[in-house]
Amino acid sequence: MSEFHFMLVDANLGERVALNLLSIGWKYNELMIIGVFDIYKDVPFQWDATLLGALVFSGSKALPAIKKGIDNLNLSEPTTSDFPILLVEDLDSPREIIRSYIEAMGYSKVEDVSSAKLALELLEKRPGAFSCIVTDMNMPEMSGADMIRHIRRDEVLHHLPVIVLTAYSTAENLVECIKAGATGFLVKPPRKKALRMELEKARRVYYGRQSPRLCSPDDAHLLEKALLKSFQP
Asked: Among candidates 147, 175, 164, which has minimal Cα distance to 201?
């Protein structure tokens, strides 16, 4: 498996099979691009696969999208040390803990700031300095969601993956993150395994030149429906 960089899974095999193949593929190559496809019809919404970072190719747009994904493959196998991260967290203690978690995973280039405003100022001064942003959701002056909206509107920064950290794991908070354009999200304090998975997904997005949004604006309502359902008692 380690020799493969791109894998396509027939949607007709079902989401369970797709999820198993995702975990196997990324175990051997964490930067492998994996897509669920059906060239004849639209693929039914697959929340778990999308959340993990699988691409969906379906209907009349499937073949052109698959070709684009293959054309964008990065075969250089960059390491975690080549992936600079900006951490945005207003509280000192959580910021130090999360930074230590990230660095312990081999991401040696981590800078941190204490507000979204400072983050945007830094990104404006050094627009090519970072490959990923990890940000708190609830901060004074400017929220993480507002910062993401600003980044997605920026012609230079819009491609950056953004992972959101939130202490309030309500459906409403997560939906706001998704609609703003988040690439992924974690509940604070983040589990190391979950943080590792989100950072690996961010690397696939960045190096594969994929959309940094967890889903397209057109599909946001599907994610919202799935989230609200999962939060029901």
From this structure: 164
